[in-house]
Specification:
The chain has 115 residues and is an alpha+beta fold. Helices cover 21% and strands 22% of the residues. It contains 2 helices and 5 strands, in the order αβββαββ.
Amino acid sequence: MPHEECLFCRIVRGDLPATVMAETDEAIALRDVNPQAPVHFLVIPKAHVRHLTDAAGDPGLIGRLLSFATRLAQEEGIAGSGYRAVINTNMDGGQSVYHLHIHVLGGRALAWPPG
């Protein structure tokens, strides 16, 4: 899929509406449109990165995205009780939008295994 058609690239460009929580120079955080927990948001890089495997060449990117997610989890009040950060990768991993994104879920006890 060309980057111009990617759902998250369109959100980053402002072509599609989203509930943006915060952003940095390289990432944006938005509320999930289909929340699976009382708190459920996504952290995505502004640059198009297809999935976690493609980000392997820039391990610092993953660290910065996770640090951003952690800061937001603290601001959302879920860091103390616990939360889950999930990166689905490719079809068998449950990835439905092929733009790297981290799901952050919390606000209730989360079961294991997840799926």
